[in-house]
Amino acid sequence: MISWAVEELKKLSEIQPEIVESALQRLWKEEPHIYKSIVISAYVDEKISLSKAAELLGITRIELEKEFKEKGIPVRSLSRKDVVFY
Question: Fewer beta carbons within 10 Å, N or C terminal of the chain?
Answer without folding.
Answer: C
